Amino acid sequence: MSDEQHRGSSDDRSQSDKVPSSDQVSDRWTQGPDVSQQAKQRPQSGAEGSGAHCSGEKNDDAETLRERQRLTQMEMMDRWVGGVLTEQRRTRRWKLFFRLMLLAIVLISLTTMLYRVFLAEPTASLPTQRHLALVEVHGVITSDAPANAERIIKGLNRAWSSSGATAVVLHIDSPGGSPVQSQRIYAEIMRLRDQGDKPIIAVIEDIGASGAYYIASAADSIVASRASLVGSIGVIYSGFGFQEAINQIGIERRVMTAGENKAFLDPFQPLDDGVADFWQSVLTQTHEQFIDDVKAGRGERLSDSPEVFSGLIWSGEQALALGLVDELASLEQVARDQVGDAEWENYTPSLDPFERLTRRFTQTAAEVLGLQHTHAPLRFQAQ
Fold first, then answer.
1. Which residues pair with 345 in a beta bridge?
2. Can you give the pTM of this predicted structure?
3. What angle do CA 379, 210, 225 make, to 5 degrees?
4. Residue 270 region, left (φ>0) first, then alpha (ψ -120 to 50), else beta?
5. What are 30-75's pLDDT values in tens digits?
6. What are the extents of the domains in the chain?
7. What is 129-236+270-381's CATH number?
8. Angle CA 180–181–184, to nearest 5
9. Helices (H) and strands (E) in the chain, counts
C-alpha cells in the first residue's frame, strides 16, 4: 500500500471516530468533553462513596456492639456488687442477733445470781406484827416440781422461826405425788409439831388428796371447804403392756440384764403371776406406811370405817364426818380466828424467774406429750 493510500485510510478512520453514534446523537446531554469526563468519574466516585458508607455503617455497628457489651458488663458487675453487699448486710444482722442473744443470756444469768444472793431469802426483814405464816403446797409433789420437799421444808422452818407468826399454815392445793417427798415433809411437820411452840394448820383448797393429805395429816388440825376433795389414801402404779403389739408389728425386743428380775416391769414382756404378786407386796407395804402415818397424825379423830383407807376421795363434808378434817372453813376465817384479821405472810421460798420459766416449759411439754411428770414409779396421787 502506498503512502497516500495509507494516509487516506488513516484520515477516514479518524473521521469515523469523530462521528457520533445514533444513541449519542439522540441524547444531546451526553455530548461534550466535560460531560464525558464527569460520566467517567461518576461511577468511580459513586463506588468509592458507597464503599465508604458501608465501611462507616460497619464501624458504627461495631462501636454500638462494644458499647452494649460494656453496658451489659457494667450491669452484671452492679448486680454482683449488690448481691455481695446484701449478703454482707445479712451476715452482719445475724452476727448482731447472736451477740444480742449472748448478751441477754449473760444478763439473765447475772440477774439470777444477784437475785439468789440478795433477794431470794429476805430473812432479815421478817414481819414482827401478828400474822399467819403461810407455806404453799401447790401442784404435784415431786423432786423436780415447785412442790418439792426441800423447798417446802425450808419454808416451814422460816415460818416457824418468825416471831410475829401466831400459827403456821400449810396452804394445800395438790393431788399428791411422790411417796418419798411426802414422807420427808410429813416427818419435818411432826418434828416441829412436837416442839409445841405454835400450831400448824393445814388448809385445803380445791384438793388435798393422796400425798397431799399425807402431809396434811401431820398438822395439828385440818381445815377444808365443803366442796374440797380430801382423802384418796392409797398407792398407785400404772403402766402398759405392749407384748402383743410388738409381736404383730414384727419387732424383736432385745434386753440384757444381770439379775433375772431386773426387767420385771418391762412393758414389752408379759407380767407373770410371780412378778405381779411381788409388785403388789411393794404397793401394799407402802400403803401400810401411809395408813400408819395418817393414824399417827390424826389419832382417835379418824373414823373406824374401813373405807377411809380404801383410796376413795371424799368431799369436805364427807371428810368431816369421817374424821379426815376438823373444820369446814376458809383461809380468811382461819386468819380471823388466829389473828383477828385476814393477815398472812407467805414464807414459801420464791423461784427465780429462769427456773420458773424452765419448769413451766418442761411441765407444758410433758402435758402435751402425755408424759407423767415424775421420776417415782409409785405415787400417792389421786387419779
1. 133
2. 0.63
3. 150
4. beta
5. 454 544 444 444 444 444 555 555 566 666 788 888 888 888 888 8
6. 62-115, 129-236+270-381
7. 3.90.226.10
8. 85
9. 11, 10
